[in-house]
Design brief:
Helices cover about 45% and strands about 20% of the residues. By secondary structure, the protein is an alpha/beta fold. It has a five-stranded parallel beta sheet, sandwiched between helices. The protein has a two-stranded antiparallel ribbon with strand order 1-7. Helix 3 links the parallel strand 3 and strand 4. Helix 1 packs across helix 3 and helix 4 packs parallel to helix 5. The relative contact order is 0.21.
């Protein structure tokens, strides 16, 4: 039974999707976007700087660009998740190459998990998400009521 410990977040039929890729994965993400262009066209797209520009240039999909990842783009995307303005993240990460902005990447992944939004780090996961029947409908999910959580914690300190 749910109490006021949780609040309901709604992902509308038209979702806001962040597209991110490390340098070695940018071409794979672009190819994925080409394959799923008809599905992606139904949604609002954003991404980190270079990736967003490359996707737009090579697919024609409109992708709002933020800063590049190393210049704070991952943090900008994370802030939009907190604001409820990004519904899911497709992030083709490179697990074999050290990233200079790795703490930012980990913070982004963490905040996506905290807000219980779908996040794909692999092509297979991205394929499952984009082809899910849930992409075509409104989806409600429960997230911790952070205001209540903070108030409760403050009472115990």
């Amino acid at each position: 039974m749910l109490t006021n410990d949780f609040i309901t977040f709604t992902l509308e039929k038209k979702k806001s999707i962040a597209l991110i890729a490390h340098d070695n994965e940018k071409h794979a993400l672009i190819e994925w976007c080409k394959e799923h262009k008809s599905a992606l066209e139904k949604h609002t797209l954003c991404g980190t700087g270079t990736t967003a520009r490359m996707i737009t240039d090579q697919t024609g999909l409109p992708v709002k660009g933020y800063n590049s990842g190393p210049l704070g783009g991952d943090q900008q995307i994370g802030a939009k998740i907190v604001e409820g303005r990004i519904d899911m993240v497709i992030f083709f990460s490179d697990p074999l190459t050290a990233q200079p902005h790795d703490p930012d990447v980990k913070a982004l992944l963490r905040i996506a998990q905290v807000y219980d939004i779908p996040i794909a780090n692999t092509r297979a996961t991205a394929d499952f998400i984009i082809t899910s029947p849930l992409m075509e409908e409104t989806y409600e999910h429960q997230v911790i009521n952070f205001h209540k959580n903070i108030a409760d914690r403050a009472k115990t300190l």
